[in-house]
C-alpha cells in the first residue's frame, strides 16, 4: 500500500490511525489491579479543555486518524462528556467515536451519549459473578452495568465490547460464564493479559496469566480465529457459529505484539505518549493553545510529525520496564 504523506507513520512502517484520548485520570472505582486504594489526587492540575480537545483531535484527523477512543480514569465522570463526544464526532475525518468506561452510569446516560454521536463502547467487567465483581472493583454494580449494556444494545449501539483483565485471583476459571453470556449476546468479550505497572508490581507477580490458555481452550472447543486486516490493532479475535458474540485476546507479552500497533495516546494533561509504557510524555499543551485554532492545530501537527521518529519498536514489559506508567488510570489503558 502506498504511504500517504499526510499520515502518521513511524520508522518501522506502522501507521497510526487510532487515537486513545484520556479526558480525566479521576476514577470512582478501585479495581485491585489499577487503583487498589482508590483514586488519590497528588497534585493540582487541569484536564484538557473542550477547546484543547477539539484542537488535538483536529490535528490527529489531519494526519489520517479516523477513530477516537475516549478513556480515562473514568471518562463518564466528566459532566461535559456529551459535548466532548460531539466535538470529536464533528471533526472532519473522524468516522468513529468510541468510549471505554467502567459502565457505572451507562444505563442513565447512554441515550445522551449516542445522541451526541457515540458509535461504540467498551465496558470493563472482570467477573460475571456479582460478589467477585464487588471484590475486584469495590462496587456492587454488576447488574446495573449489565442493564446499561442492554440499554446500549436496545438503542442501536452496534459495537459493544466487554473488557476483562485476566488474573489468577479472580477470573481465570470463568471462561465458561462469559461463553454462556455471549451465546445469545452480540457482544465481544476481550480478555486482556494483566500488564505490570509502576504501582502494580506485587499484584502482577501474584496474578499474571498468559492468554494462551484461553486461546487453546477456545480452539479446542471449535472457535475459529478471525483473519485480521492489515490496519487492525494487536487484538486476536475468535468466532464460533453457535455464538452471537465473539472473544478477543489482548496478549501484550506475546511475541510480535507491537508489530501491529496502530494507536497513539494523549493523557488528560495533554501529553502525547508514543507507547502505553513510554518513559515520558511529550507536552502538547503550549502548541494546543498557541494563537488561533488554525495555528494551534498547525503547531500540533508539526509536533506530532516530529515525535514519530522517537517511537520505539516495542515496549519492554518482558524486561519488567514499565516506563512512567504508575497505573493505567493515568493514561486510559
Ligand atoms: N475506567 C475505564 C474502564 O475501566 O474501562 C477506562 C480506563 S481503564 C484504565 C481502561 C482499561 O484498562 C480497562 O479495561 C481496564 O480493565 C484496563 N486495565 C487497567 N489496568 C490494567 C492492567 N494493569 N493490565 C491490563 N489492563 C488494565
Ligand atoms: Fe477505574 Fe478503570 Fe482503573 Fe477500574 S480500571 S480503577 S474503573 S480507571
TrEMBL record:
One of its GO terms (molecular function) is GTP 3',8'-cyclase activity. The gene is moaA. It comes from Pseudoalteromonas haloplanktis. This is GTP 3',8-cyclase. Its EC number is 4.1.99.22. Residues 11-234 form the Radical SAM core domain. Monomer and homodimer. [4Fe-4S] cluster 2 binds at residues 258, 261, 275. CDD domains: Radical_SAM (cd01335), Twitch_MoaA (cd21117). HAMAP family: MoaA_B. Belongs to the radical SAM superfamily. MoaA family. GTP binds at residues 20, 69, 100, 161, 263-265. Catalyzes the cyclization of GTP to (8S)-3',8-cyclo-7,8-dihydroguanosine 5'-triphosphate. SMART domains: Elp3 (SM00729). PANTHER family: GTP 3',8-CYCLASE, MOLYBDOPTERIN COFACTOR SYNTHESIS PROTEIN A. Binds 2 [4Fe-4S] clusters. Binds 1 [4Fe-4S] cluster coordinated with 3 cysteines and an exchangeable S-adenosyl-L-methionine and 1 [4Fe-4S] cluster coordinated with 3 cysteines and the GTP-derived substrate. It catalyses: GTP + AH2 + S-adenosyl-L-methionine = (8S)-3',8-cyclo-7,8-dihydroguanosine 5'-triphosphate + 5'-deoxyadenosine + L-methionine + A + H(+).
Amino acid at each position: 500500500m502506498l504511504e500517504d504523506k499526510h499520515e502518521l507513520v513511524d520508522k518501522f512502517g506502522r501507521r497510526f490511525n487510532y487515537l486513545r484520548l484520556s479526558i480525566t485520570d479521576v476514577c470512582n472505582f478501585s479495581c485491585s489491579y489499577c487503583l487498589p486504594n482508590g483514586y488519590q489526587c497528588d497534585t493540582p492540575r487541569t484536564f484538557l479543555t473542550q477547546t484543547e480537545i477539539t484542537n488535538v483531535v483536529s490535528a490527529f484527523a489531519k494526519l489520517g486518524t479516523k477513530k477516537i477512543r475516549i478513556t480515562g480514569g473514568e471518562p463518564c465522570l466528566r459532566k461535559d462528556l456529551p459535548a466532548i463526544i460531539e466535538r470529536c464526532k464533528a471533526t472532519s475525518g473522524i468516522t468513529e467515536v468510541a468510549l471505554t468506561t467502567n459502565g457505572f452510569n451507562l444505563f442513565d446516560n447512554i441515550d445522551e451519549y449516542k445522541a451526541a454521536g457515540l458509535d461504540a463502547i467498551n465496558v470493563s467487567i472482570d467477573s460475571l459473578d456479582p460478589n467477585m465483581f464487588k471484590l475486584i472493583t469495590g462496587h456492587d454494580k454488576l447488574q446495573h452495568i449489565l442493564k446499561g449494556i442492554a440499554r446500549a444494545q436496545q438503542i442501536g449501539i452496534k459495537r459493544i465490547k466487554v473488557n476483562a483483565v485476566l488474573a489468577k485471583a479472580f477470573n481465570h476459571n470463568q471462561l465458561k460464564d462469559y461463553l454462556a453470556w455471549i451465546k445469545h449476546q452480540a457482544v465481544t468479550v476481550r480478555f486482556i493479559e494483566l500488564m505490570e505497572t509502576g504501582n502494580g508490581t506485587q499484584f502482577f507477580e501474584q496474578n499474571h496469566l498468559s492468554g494462551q490458555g484461553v486461546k487453546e481452550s477456545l480452539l479446542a472447543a471449535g472457535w475459529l480465529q478471525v483473519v485480521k486486516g492489515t490496519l487492525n490493532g494487536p487484538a486476536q479475535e475468535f468466532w464460533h457459529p453457535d455464538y452471537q458474540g465473539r472473544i478477543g485476546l489482548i496478549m501484550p507479552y506475546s511475541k510480535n505484539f507491537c508489530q501491529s500497533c496502530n494507536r497513539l495516546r494523549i493523557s488528560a494533561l495533554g501529553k502525547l505518549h508514543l507507547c502505553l509504557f513510554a518513559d515520558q510524555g511529550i507536552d502538547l499543551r503550549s502548541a494546543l493553545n498557541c494563537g488561533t485554532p488554525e495555528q494551534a492545530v498547525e503547531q500540533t501537527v508539526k509536533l506530532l510529525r516530529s515525535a514519530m521518529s522517537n517511537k520505539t519498536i516495542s515496549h519492554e514489559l518482558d524486561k519488567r520496564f514499565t516506563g512512567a506508567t504508575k497505573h493505567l488510570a493515568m493514561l486510559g489503558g
